Each structure stands twice: as structure tokens, then as C-alpha cells.
Amino acid sequence: SRKRLNIPLDKKILLTVSRLNPLKQVDKLIDILQKIDYDFLFVLVGHGTREYEQFLKKKAEKLINENKIRFEGYKQSEELIHYYNAADLFLHVSRSEAGPISVIEAMACGLPVFCTDTGNTAEVLKENNAGVVVGINNYIEWKEKLIQILNGKSVKELDIEIVKKYYDWKNVAEKFVKIYNKILYGNQRIT
Fold it and tell me: What is the pLDDT of residues 61-108, one digit of tens each?
């Protein structure tokens, strides 16, 4: 995947796949990464308004000049899988989330996850002692944890069987059917 995407083989690859807007805090992540003296590549997949993307690129000028960040734009399906497989760590630092799908996709590809404490995926990671879950606004903690990881601290990925249990569409659909049946029929036995 790295060769296919022309991503260096000898660097730690950090990946974000996201809509680009202030809620996602990519600007805060860029600020932190500019203060970390380590040879990494932050690959940013996604898009937002032209103005916001320009804002992020201006903010990231130092990282761009040092070849430490790549803005890849919007990607889909098969191509996106190569980005997940090329990365060493998935970063998702949103202020608010329900899922999110990108974290689920990263976990399904066996990628360790670094995320803020929001949404179901953060809960599942904490329950299973996997990934790194940091405070939504605790930027000092973000920096400290990222430095530890870049210096070799391993991050446990979520076991694929647990990913399937929580996020496989068949299992999700069965959970919804049970919820609907409980709402419709209460505690009555359904035959």
C-alpha cells in the first residue's frame, strides 16, 4: 500500500480520514504535530470548504516544507483501504461524534487508533483496553501521548472479533431489530 501511494517506507505514518471542519480539530492536531521533533508523515484524507482547506494548509506550512504532512483530498472505497493499510496509527480528534465510520474502518483494517473521548468507538476502545483515548480538549495529553507513540510505545489495536461484534452490519442490523421489537411488543414473547 505504501508503494502504491508513494508513501515513505521508513517513516511513522499517521492517518486521518475526515470531513474537514473546525469540529474535527485537525487544526489543533497540526499545531501539536508542529511541536513534535520526530520523523513522521501525517496523511490527511478528506475535504471541506475551499476556505477551510486553505486555512489548514496555511497553518501546516512548516510541516509541508518539512515533508511531514500530505493533504490527499477525498478518497473512496478501494483506494481508501490502501491508506488505512499504509498507516501505523489512525488519528481522530473530533469534539463530537456518534460513530464515526472512519474509526470503524481503521479498526477493521487492524490499525491502532488514537482518538478523543467521544462517540461509541471511544467507549468500545476503553472497554477493551485498546487504542489511545484522550481528552477532547486536553492538547497537552495529545502531545505527550503522540510523543510516546512516536518514540516506540505500542498501541494495542482492537481485536478483529470485537470489531465484528460491534460493527459488522449483520450484527448491527440484528441489534436494531431487537430494539424495534422491544419497542413494538414490549416484553411480550415474539414468535
Answer: 999 999 999 999 999 888 999 999 999 999 999 999 877 889 989 999
**d(Cα 170, Cα 177) in Å, to the nearest integer?**
11
In contact, 102 and 91? CB cutoff 8 Å? no
Q: Is the pLDDT of residue 179 over 80?
A: no
The closest alpha carbon to 82, from 105, 104, 53, belongs to: 105
Report the 10 Å Cβ neighbour count for 93.
Answer: 21
Answer left, alpha or beta for residue 72, where phi above 0 means left and psi between -120 and 50 means alpha. Answer: alpha
Q: Is the Cβ–Cβ distance between 80 and 17 less than 8 Å?
A: yes
Q: At what angle do helices 101-108 and 77-86 cross, to 10 degrees?
A: 60
Please name every residue paired with 20 in a beta bridge, in sequence order, or none if there are none. 48
